[in-house]
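The authors assume throughout that readers already know how a fold can be written as discrete tokens. For illustration, here is how one protein appears when written out as sequence plus structure tokens:
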Amino acid sequence: GLDSTLALLITCRAFDLTGISRKKITAITMPCFGTTNRTYTNACSLAKECGVTLKEIRIEAAVRQHMKDIGQDENTHDVTYENCQARERTQVLMDYANKTNGIVIGTGDLSELALGWCTYNGDHMSMYGVNSSIPKTLVRYLVEWFATDSEDAKNEKFSKVLKDILDTPVSPELLPPKDGKISQVTEDLVGPYELHDFFLYYVLRFGFAPSKIF
């Protein structure tokens, strides 16, 4: 997704500036019930083109065991079904970071945090939330810059995968896909980010009241 992509690109830039090999960055892909082939392939391709270490940890079995433990029906696609997956992702990241003496780089952006569109004790927490002050529309703009104007953009494969990520609907991918395509589109549920970010800008920068913004 866009947020994870930007978090990875920022981390790569930080490692470059400090002269540390990108191989010491571990990008973890955690396929589960909602993962589509498109996003999985893009994640693997981006990690390869960035020159980082890619690790795949499938979490279906762990999530199913947890659902069994708490008595959650796997066929009931409610908020519990979704958050079981989101929290398992975070547990994997946190524990793998402990194991490798690393830190978890957060992906959540300012728009998601303002809306509460994140999982408590899940993707809302990390050791360093690099996107926490960046609204979703700016996330898109920055990824577009990396795809077209950055030094890495000279790599056609890198640029191509970023452009496909930009073209992919924003989704947490926590519901099973339909015909192999994303079934859970965030903006269908919470509304367009262009509006949310417009509201956020005038509230946070200028303290405008709702009546003024309207």
